[in-house]
Amino acid sequence: MHIAVVGLSHRTAPVEVREKLSIPEQTMEESLQNLRNHEQVLEASILSTCNRLEIYTLVRNPDLGIAAVRDFLSGHSGLESRDLSPHLFTYHHDEAIAHLMRVTAGLDSLVLGEGQILSQVKKMMRLGQEHKSIGPILNRLLTQAVSTGKRVRSETNLSTGAVSVSSAAVELAQLKLGQSRGQDALVTLETEQIAVVGAGRMSRLLLQHLQAKGASGVVLLNRTIERASALATDFPNLPIQCRGLDDLDQCLSTCSLVFTSTAADDPIIDANRLNALNRRSSLRLVDIGVPRNIASDVHDVSGVESHDVDDLQEVVERNQEARQQVAREAEGLLLEESRLFLEWWDSLEAVPTINRLRASLEEIRVEELTKALSRMGPDFSARERKVVEALTKGMINKILHTPVTQLRSAQQRSERQQALQVVEKIFDLESGAASQD
Fold first, then answer.
1. Which position among 50, 242, 251, 255 bears the catalytic label?
2. Is residue 95 one of the residues assigned to a domain?
């Protein structure tokens, strides 16, 4: 068996490719089942965010298993393999484990150290458990990855002052507004007429940072006004008008700055929509949805400036240098956690021998117990039989405890293999296994 990850991210693919591979939660079960239906894929989990789509698998054969995942991605995205392959990365075993640790710690994020990825990995694990697509191996790996992400954030300063995609989007708007006024600096948002489309987690973070950056008020649009109103109650110090999506055209006509973050599969704003409006002189759009909420053709509309998640790199680079040293400190923790998982993985090599040893001793126990009970005659009560049964099982467990512990905990693989060979020879487990076959 082998652990492998196949995927793409903001580092390997532009947003127009990433959005074709995005897998929403409502279709996650079907996607996981499609992967698991392949004979090469033993376990599977999917991490789908605005900046990455990664599929972690336990496969029988690394080449055949990875090919199966690539075929799935091609079919899901509708992209030919020749068009998709240049954007995909593949990591196998040690590299796959190390990659997951880096992702969960926020070291592979667009915004170094951002915290949202940890909750997204938790969600990946939860969905894998709910849809029964992960087993003991990936469950152990994902659990350790989440624990590692928490450890990095508690034992280093990586998360101190860390920004999210949402806060980077707000800073990008500030920077672009400043540049339009001849300033290479972040400007206040106090005089801007601002709208946020969507009322999910990303929009919550947008509101949080808009408030922190001096916004005097926000129009919050959502498909259901009730959800928007519930979100608005968490920001009593920020004036928020809650409206339905029917008012989107009005906001596009009157607002100077509009952020979009919805789960829509297709763009909700395009050039035709904007050209049909009686707009104010300028409009700045910032889209952090994947798939994109704003069509690429809006770049051709006069008086409109549009940005998507790939444009956040300009802001991110301004904040990264000071965090690189902390990131290097975190790498040491990741190496340690990866090593611990690999040691556990190597210990699985002992499981077949341990199982055969336990089965061999159990067979002896049952045989000798049966003989002893037959000699006791009918006067031996059922309660006494249970006591003797428990006594013999306890003796076997005591006898097995030390050798099993030693076989599992051997630090070097060569040391473990030598010990396994000794146990199999002493207890004649190989011939026993052969005769059972």
1. 50
2. yes
